[in-house]
Design brief:
heterodimer; A: two-stranded antiparallel sheet; B: 9-stranded mixed beta sheet; two-stranded antiparallel ribbon; 31% helix
Chain lengths: 643, 332
């Protein structure tokens, strides 16, 4: 089997596997639904997810250890993931192949020439890693401040390093190293002068551009909802995600750019590819030329996927190991072997030490700047209700890769990608939109946390969610609290009986309870008693249509006697029929008052778990008359409402 | 490639390959060490990590228990000097070389004339008494409701304390530590202005007598509220129990309750001279419950009207029956 056939088979396999995992991320009991399929495996294989969360949290969560396999293979073999495995890369390669068939060889050779812009992806990678590393550095700093001997050791180490670097600088003429040491010393000093509490913070933003989460997000939120319908019934109700336009636009832009330059995203943008480029620096085997035989025909460049210029000095960090150059070389010059290319090679990514440090430091510095907005502190947005099991906001932002798996699996379609409600850092992170979907956040569901690849939403048990068993003392997980908007509520503001919210409140005892009130009905004129016989009343005044007032919710009282309201059973030619004869005596001419019996809804915050079913069901469909906000959520003590 | 036909070039290649092998091997080892070393199979458990819990020592003195002096007069400095003298002098409370914390009431950014905060004259007098008794350092602190810097400046407390020789500690995030009251229900894992407490041997609580709409009165027991951080106002939902737990949290060396003027209405902020009434009384007591019971009378309230007094008494913080104590009444 030719090597590119093997490569194609591998790509097709992983691409289909990816699509399959997307499809089966559907809650249900069919074989093609979530029946133990390892739907997170491709995300786990992506080492940028593992590395990002490791830097941000100091721990590598469960399945993310798979990323180590990819890392080790990349160190030994080079960017095999890009050419053989990455489903997003496969898509680009396929689109590029279709789009560029029949174009002239010279055009393609030009398009595939190495472009200086390809170094941008390294800057993107370093910026994103810098942004996620703040907390790791913060922990080191705190430890160094807390323990004077350690601090002394660090200072001594820095001085030693400085001396060593000065020596090295004299010998080699490399000047960047002293800059690094200076920055390290300045930073340590700065941290000692400040509290150290806000100088550093971590935010995991790799998922914005990391191809695996990006592809999952795009397919989960912008492609599957389109095909999901009668022919391909993936979800019982069609999926809606307000605000996904940007996700779709970025996806299609990445796809369409292949028309101009094949694998544009892989070459210029992809931070994962950049990571592989750095890791593969010492790969034992690499693509390159043999010593003799090259006629400079350009066939290798014509079909090159990575833009790494195999015809001349090959840039191995750019090589995605598509192996097209091997297959298309008519002179059998190209090979994958231990020795470097005979025509020479550049083994290190095209990024200067200075650019390396600047982008990394910019990433570290950007997060505290973003945090000045205070959205993880006092300026938190109560409209951002996170799924049950979500970590406290700062910890959440250290883990969420915005892959959209929680949104895909959510059986009620209540989890949606945030816009900027949670700050720029929180873009496309999951938040609950109770207006959308089929029915709030189901009390008996823990799907999202069990699919989350990074435990930004913890995998909780049903017992923990409901506060049962071992979790009785902690009580249920609350994601927010419902508030009645008395200015919009039908019984509160408009004298119309309703309490759909109370009916649908799923907790026991119900968090929504009612208090009874009788309100006089607004009529076109006064009602006056004509005569009374048993439970029949004849009256004068505006007409009382039976279909409106004989519903069982309307009552009458007579005069100012303080009598109990009597329920209207029927209104006809014989006047008003009441359910019981009135006991009180009344005279003709006494004023008659028509009352509506209302049950006014109240929320008991001690019972409310914030599931939002009330908000979803509220018949005031625009801006609901009962709405859940994140107050009293259990994930953040500071948001506690009650003692 | 056999040794027989090895050229200089291939030796170079082989050497380079071996270098790469070494580097790749080290990289793999490093990656594996990091990956496996930081492996976390369980994931976060959702319980916020509280950090190390701190303890607050008991600052009361066994030998001085149950002593109270009620001084009548109009001059705060004179009254407090004479009241302490009647109880055996400040040297009975503060030994030479000891560090003293004055927990004042600096809750609001209001001038001293409005009586919403500890009077600067009184703060200065107590600072001097401590220093005269040989205290090595006197610290004045509070976590005000209004902006701390403004509150300490506008109340005149900061200037007076510094002039008298004390340090003033304004609350900063790093000075708070999470703390739980033993046997408490409300103050659990809660940020407390701990750093100033940790560095002292004695604590003197200083509070003016004030009307307080939620708890009935704000005096020496309620004054410890100002040591709490965080969103402490949620405790207003159960303010009397909270004051009980504050009494469990801080066992002061001695308290000074300033009823030379009392805020009778519109408390605890006041805002008008008409809210104040000259009540001509200053209480120095090692029993904060007794002091508050005396203060309640100045407001025209009975101790029984203030549930927190009975609650503090129940947990052994003192007695509302101040006449049962070693009581001295003096005219300053």
């Amino acid at each position: 089997m030719k090597i590119i056939t093997a490569r194609r088979n591998s790509q097709i396999f992983f691409f289909l596997l990816f699509l399959w995992f997307c499809i089966v991320s559907t809650l249900g009991e069919q074989w093609w639904q979530l029946r133990g399929w390892p739907v997170g495996w491709l995300i786990q294989l992506d080492p940028l997810v593992g590395l990002g969360t490791l830097l941000a949290t100091g721990s590598l969560y469960a399945g993310l250890l798979w990323g180590l396999v990819t890392v080790i293979l990349t160190i030994l073999l080079g960017r095999f993931f890009c050419g053989w495995l990455c489903p997003f890369g496969t898509l680009h390669q396929a689109v590029g192949w279709i789009a560029n068939r029949g174009r002239m060889a010279s055009t393609m050779i030009a398009a595939n020439r190495y472009h200086r812009g390809q170094r941008i992806k390294y800057a993107i990678l370093l910026f994103l890693l810098g942004a996620s590393a703040g907390d790791l550095l913060g922990r080191l700093l705190k430890a160094s401040i807390a323990s004077p001997p350690l601090l002394a050791a660090i200072v001594a180490g820095a001085l030693l390093l400085g001396a060593g670097v000065a020596w090295l600088q004299n010998k080699s003429g490399k000047r960047w190293a002293s800059g690094v040491v200076l920055i390290a010393i300045a930073w340590t000093a700065l941290s000692l002068l400040t509290d150290g509490s806000r100088l550093l913070a971590a935010s995991l933003q790799t998922g914005l551009l990391d191809p695996i989460p990006l592809f999952y997000r795009s397919v989960n939120l912008t492609l599957l909802p389109l095909v999901d319908g009668r022919l391909v019934p993936l979800s019982p109700a069609s999926r809606v995600y307000p605000g996904v336009l940007a996700i779709g636009v970025i996806f299609w832009a990445a796809v369409l750019l292949n028309l101009r330059i094949p694998r544009f995203y892989c070459r210029f943008v992809c931070p994962l590819g950049a990571l592989f480029g750095l890791l593969g620096k010492n790969a034992l085997w690499r693509v390159g030329q043999k010593a003799d035989g090259c006629t400079a025909c350009g066939a290798c460049d014509r079909y090159c996927e990575g833009g790494c210029e195999p015809s001349s000095v090959i840039r191995t960090p750019e090589c995605v190991m598509c192996m097209n150059c091997l297959a298309h070389c008519r002179h059998d010059v190209m090979g994958y072997h231990r020795s470097p290319s005979a025509a020479g090679e550049v083994a290190v990514p095209d990024i200067t030490k200075r650019a390396f440090m600047v982008t990394l430091a910019s990433g570290v510095a950007a997060v505290p700047l973003a945090r000045l907005a205070g959205m993880t502190g006092d300026a938190w947005n109560p409209a951002v209700v996170r799924p049950p099991g979500a970590l406290p906001e700062a910890a959440f932002l250290q883990r969420c890769i915005k892959c959209g798996q929680c949104m895909r699996i959510c059986p009620t379609n209540v989890i949606h990608p945030a816009g900027i409600q949670a700050g720029l850092e929180g873009i496309w992170t999951p938040m609950l939109n109770f207006r959308m979907g089929t029915s709030g956040c189901q009390q008996g569901c823990i799907a999202c946390g069990n699919l989350c690849p990074t435990a930004a939403i913890r995998p909780i048990s049903l017992d923990e969610r409901l506060g049962k068993g071992d979790f009785t003392s902690r009580g249920p997980i609350r994601i927010g609290t419902a508030f009645v908007d008395r200015g919009r509520c039908l019984p509160w503001a408009m004298d119309r009986p309703c309490i759909v919210c109370q009916e649908n409140c799923p907790v026991s005892p119900k968090a929504i309870f009612t208090r009874e009130a009788y309100q006089p009905v607004r009529l076109g004129g006064a009602l006056v008693l004509q005569s009374m016989a048993g439970n029949q009343l004849l009256f004068e005044g505006p007409a009382l249509p039976s279909e409106r007032f004989a519903t069982g919710d309307y009552f009458v009282t007579i005069g100012g006697h303080g009598m109990l309201p009597a329920r209207i059973v029927e209104i006809g030619p014989g006047g008003i029929t009441l359910d019981n004869p009135l006991v009180e005596t009344a005279a003709a001419g006494d004023p008659l008052t028509l009352l509506v019996r209302l049950q006014l809804p109240y929320v008991d915050p001690a019972q409310c778990i914030g599931c939002g079913i009330c908000e979803h069901e509220c018949p005031v469909k625009g801006r609901r008359a009962i709405r859940v906000s994140a107050e009293n959520e259990t994930r953040q003590r500071r948001h506690r409402l009650l003692l | 490639m056999g040794d027989c036909c090895m050229t200089a070039d291939s030796t170079l290649n082989r050497r380079e390959f071996l270098t790469r092998c070494t580097r790749a091997g080290l990289s793999v080892a490093a990656a594996a060490t990091l990956g496996i070393g930081f492996y976390d199979g369980k994931g976060p458990d959702g319980v916020s990590d509280a950090g190390p819990a701190v303890q607050i020592p008991d600052f009361s003195m066994a030998a001085m228990q149950g002593k109270i002096c009620i001084a009548r007069g109009t001059d705060r400095a004179a009254a407090v000097r004479q009241a302490f003298a009647a109880l055996g002098g400040m040297s009975a409370f503060v030994k030479p070389g000891e560090r003293v914390l004055l927990k004042v009431n600096a809750a609001f950014a209001a001038p001293p004339s409005l009586g919403a905060t500890s009077h600067p004259d009184l703060v200065a007098a107590v600072v001097r008494l401590c220093l005269d008794a040989g205290a090595s350092r006197v610290t004045v602190t509070d976590n005000p409701i209004n902006d701390p810097a403004s509150a300490f400046a506008l109340t005149g407390i900061e200037a007076a304390a510094r002039q008298a020789g004390a340090d003033v500690v304004l609350p900063r995030e790093s000075l708070f530590k999470r703390y739980s009251v033993d046997g408490g229900r409300l103050i659990r894992d809660w940020p407390v202005l701990y750093a100033p407490l940790a560095r002292v041997d004695r604590i003197i609580g200083m509070a003016p007598v004030k009307d307080h709409h939620r708890s009935g009165a704000s005096m020496t027991l309620k004054n410890w509220y100002g040591l709490l951080g965080g969103r402490r106002n949620i405790f207003h939902q159960d303010v009397h129990t909270l004051i009980q737990e504050l009494a469990m949290m801080i066992r002061p060396t001695v308290v000074v309750l300033d009823g030379i003027q009392s805020m009778m209405t519109n408390g605890p902020t006041g805002g008008s001279l008409s809210d104040l009434k000259p009540t001509g009384t200053l209480i120095v007591s090692t029993d904060p419950v007794a002091a508050d019971a005396v203060g309640a009378a100045l407001l025209g309230r009975a101790a029984a009207d203030l549930p927190f007094i009975a609650k503090a008494q129940n947990i052994g913080a003192g007695t509302a029956d101040y006449r049962s104590l070693d009581l001295q009444e003096i005219q300053a």
